[in-house]
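Write out this protein's structure.
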Amino acid sequence: MDTKYELSPEHTVTLDTADHFARLELAPLFARMDDEEWWPEDGMRRVGDAGFLGVTIPGEYGGSGMDFVSHGLVIQAFARHNSSFCLSYAAHENLFINNLYRNGSREQRHKYLPKCIRGEMIGALGMTEPGAGSDAIGSMATTAKRDGDHYILNGRKIYITNGPIADVMIIYARTESDSGTKGVSAFLVEKDFPGFSVAQKMIKMGHRGSPTGELVFDDCRVPVENLLGEENRGVGIMMSGLDLERAAVGAHTLGICERALELSIEHAKLRVQFGQPIGTFQMVQAMLADMYVAVESTRQLVYHTLFKCNAMKQGEGGRGQIHKLTAAMILHCGRSVMSVCENAVQIHGGSGYMWETEVNRLYRAAKVSEIGAGTNEVRRMIIAKELLV
């Protein structure tokens, strides 16, 4: 097995710098974001000013030109201190910025990337539909028909992170109704395009400060130059993007796991029952030990996957070893973060059950890690299919 996934000194600096920023700037926002489903309007600009947008993008477009590992480390650090903000950050940075750079034309990059990297525009990606979740391709009902210099989009997307606040989105739509998986294309859609609207902002169990919405396309006119990649070749963009998304989600879950363990250790030292800190009780120690094992195993698998994603070439992904690895990684991460956060709530006892506590926010946020970017069941299907090739 290739074990070349130790962080370099530069990677460690990136992680520590992002952690310092998140602890000072993002952590104080976490409670209000969760309690009020509030999004800080200047939040993405502040992150951009600090140099944490466009991590993987060359300086030509305003980015930092670092590698995908660095991208994951920033997500890990942000998730430690504000998982809600981190979810929107990851959707903007990974699902939109990184996706556009990998698949867009030079003109598209220059049009959107600089503003997105400065935080002046917020990006999103629309794949899931009311009738198309795990079967996102086969059941896709959103259509795009060529009409002169425009495509006309009709349909709906749902559960879209950043949907209510996005200025520009990558949207998948069916361009050939009888071509199966080959008839899907990707488009860059701006919020002001005629025929686009946000139907609703959705209320979630966790990550409540990260706006999620339903998008509607009613004869939405998209200029031909906003076709991302080639017509009817959107599935390749989608599948390679899913592998990178899973790697990013893994880094997100790692940050949540780390914070839940940190809070639990602090509580076990300070909470006194029967005349002594609860950390002296063997059953609490056993939970802490299990949490540590889950965190460290998650860390190693996440870092290994991030390094493997570094080597992904254009158009690669959606098949083979990297597809199997990202599915396995996020499957493990989802199970680990649920276990770690459940133990964290248990160690905190009654306070852990209270809505306003940080450990409760982490517990509620953890569940989506077993659902988003492909459910646990889909992840198992991917792994098994690749094993049996």
